[in-house]
Amino acid sequence: MPSIAQASPLKKPGPAMVRERAPTDYSHPGNSQLRAALFVPSTSLPSIQAQRQVRKQLAVLVQQNSLRSPKGIPMKAAIIILSDPTNGGEDALGRMFNGLAAAYDFKQRNIEASIYFQGAGTRWPGVVGKADHPVHALFKAVEGSIAGVSCGCADVFGAREDAVKNGFDLITDNSVPGTSGLPSLGKLVAEGYTVFTF
Q1: pLDDT single digits (tens) 60-111
Q2: Which domains are present in the chain?
Q3: Could you tell me if 72 and 29 are in contact, meaning their C-beta atoms sit under 8 angstroms apart?
């Protein structure tokens, strides 16, 4: 058995990498600063204090960049309200509330959000404008994010008159045969929107 003195010396490992986990794709060009902060050789961090400083800078970069798509484009959200306020009961109310709450959350995080009323959800514009409605306050808080109402759906569900009377735009981007037009999810996705349905 070789003595300790005769044992082969261990190979010196290369510089370790300090890697913080970030909830984003740091491979795209839009996150170059973030990528630089994520992978920092430990040899360049002479002290614990320096490492803490890097982590603080990293936290800021993550906040600035984590809401970007892999192509470096800021995230955008399209919220589609489908629930029926006339026949849906509490479930419809809950879905409407959570849809608007999601829009409010995006708004607070400076993420672009657009709200569309589609299907039986086109009946909501005739309801949420009432001051005593449970979601009225939340509706007013995100009113500026409302893109409009599916024109074809409003025709089918008898909601077109209320939508127009309450100042909602009628969306006709998707020229579906036999209809006056609907919102185009294909167009939204092509423009970088993530679609959420409620």
Answers
A1: 554 554 455 555 557 899 999 999 999 878 999 999 999 999 999 999 999 9
A2: 17-65 (no CATH), 76-197 (3.40.1260.10)
A3: yes
